[in-house]
Amino acid sequence: MLPFWIALQFLSSFPVRLPGMPTPAQNGRSLLFYPLVGALFGVALVLLNLLLSGTPALLHAALLLAAWVLLSGGLHLDGLADSADAWLGGFGDRERTLEIMKDPRSGPVAIVTLLLVLLLKFTALVALVGNPDWRVLLLAPLIGRGALLGLFLCTPYVRAGGLGQALADHLPRRAGWLVLIAATLLCGALGGSWALLAAALAFAYLRSRLMRRLGGTTGDTAGAILELLEALVLVVWAL
Fold first, then answer.
1. pLDDT digit string (tens) for 73-100?
2. CB within 10 Å: which end of the chain, N or C, has fewer?
3. Which structural domain, as residue segments, surrounds residue 59?
4. Considering the entire predicted model, what is its pTM?
């Protein structure tokens, strides 16, 4: 079960302590548990949603969104910010785009992008407050983290070295596809077919842009895709 704990430690702010430094193979296998971590996020959000029942709608949505961000420690929002800065500032150049992503500073484009994505999530949650249908709170984090597994299965990793390279090199491909299929079937069983279709189309488009600009993905662009897909699922469900 060590790969599961690796995935939970990396993707969440839960206080997980590992017995030692994971091997590259264990890091690669941790990707298989990303959809499960997404499902755990969803369960936590569903329980919080129940606890907040009767709370004013705006406060209810704000607390849900705050908990959502805290669960991930803002990891993927950081990737979204870096990707937004790099995508505009890179002017279509691969090496410049990758260089800007490594810069820890955030420019105006990053801040505006973060605000817009969080605003979309917040307003979608406001629209959903009071609706007894809780499934989207489970579907959005599940689809988002399942997309990370799908991205590493079908997209080259373009930064040599580091954790991302170990994930890409040591991911068990056959098991990965089986897990992704199982996660997709679970989303369908939860009645999320339209949200899943919208996410799949957006994933294909975003991946095509990554391939055209970078020839693959990075950790930052993976986090950006997760955040964008979560927001999309919430908006589609609210509509």
1. 988 999 999 999 999 887 888 889 888 8
2. N
3. 2-238
4. 0.94
